[in-house]
Amino acid sequence: MSPSTPVSGLSLPWLVLLLLLEIPGESGETLTLNCSVTGLGPPGPVKWFKGSGSGRQLVYDQKGSFPRVTRAVSGSSTDFTIHISDTRPEDAGIYRCVKFEKGSGADEEIRSGAGTVVSVSARPSAPSMSGPPSRAEPGPPVTFTCTSGGFAPRDIAVTWLKNGAKLPAPQPRVLPAHESVSYSVSSTVGVNLTAGDARSQLTCQIEHSTLPAPLRATYKLSDALRVPPRLRVGTDPAVPVAPNESVTFTCHAEGFYPKDVSLTWLENGNETNLGKPSPLAENPDGTYTLQSSLEVNATEQRSQSMFTCRVVHDSQSPISASATLRLSQPSADLFSSPALWIGLFLEKVLTAAFLLFLFL
Fold first, then answer.
1. What is the rounded CA–CA span in Å between residue 175 and residue 177?
2. Given Cys at both, which of 111, 150, 178, 189 links 160, Cβ 3.0 to 4.6 Å?
3. Where do the segments described as Disordered lie (predicted)?
């Protein structure tokens, strides 16, 4: 609906009837600015200006092209009301209807209305959110930013929510600091990420007098989160083991995010086969777990060998965990050794000879 401002006249027969009034408008609407003259004035045009003094801007003249400005009553000699279509924030200002008298040279201004103050309110743009330039691990606060622009008047409220709960945040920065036809806002918040934030959501909410309901933008914290895996290596059966027994080393990479991960086995620092990985499993908090098993024959040559699980997660530096293969010697094997029996026999013979020598 186009705003329309009524005016009242004075007694002078040709006075431009425009008083100092204020017309609120909203961006995109059509504004109506009223102006009329009574009686017969001197020959000359009636023009519309925005602003005052030497810097005033011609808004409408009966001659020329003004794409967004049209006469309400085309050709009238008394009604000079105009329509301004597709109102924009920069249309805000004081408008005056001015009567000129036609002269031999330039037209001479003879009368002007007090002016009409036009204020244009504009809705803020849809908020835009940004996070850290790279993934961050749980710990220190990570900064997120929310921006919007093109709004008027200046007052605006920004609220941050994490999973629906309000977060403390500094006052938003509204620019420019001086009076302007439109403004922009920037708000930042620091969030301490946790491993459970793989399924969390951050919301920026904007409230403004032109909005029937708040504007919202959301950010999935999973896009900013990195949780390194926790590694542990175990054996089945537990070491030490008997020679030539089969031993399974198992690597557990637990609680990591995102799921991009590669796992390699090393024996004494040298890469060995890839082992047998289990399917990647998703945990209840949105992180992941991966297991890989390596079967080894516990030969004498492998005694004290170190088996290392090396994991590269999300293109970061490798992390690793290790376990050592240790062999045990069963007691039955000790006494079945011929060399051991010969040694014991010789020990007894020497002991008997020594005792015989002492008593002779």
1. 5
2. 189
3. 121-140
Provide mean pLDDT across the span 142-156: 96
User: What is the residue type of 175?
Assistant: L
Residue 54 has pLDDT above 90, yes or no: no
First to last CA, the chain: 138
At residue 227, φ and ψ (nearest 5 deg) are -120, 110
Q: How wide is the angle at C-alpha 27 spanned by C-alphas 24 and 33, nearest 5°?
A: 45
Separation of alpha carbons 284 and 305, rounded Å: 37
Contact (Cβ atoms closer than 8 angstroms) between residue 16 and residue 37 = yes
Would you state the structure tokens that stand for residue 342, as one six-digit string? Answer: 């010969």
Rounded CA gap, 117 and 129, in Å? 36
CA 204 to chain centre: 9
Q: Which phi and psi (to 5°) does residue 354 adopt?
A: -65, -40
Nearest residue to 248 (alpha-carbon basis) of 307, 183, 176: 307
Number of residues written out for the chain = 360
What domains are there in the chain, each with its CATH number? 21-121 (2.60.40.10), 128-223 (2.60.40.10), 230-328 (2.60.40.10)
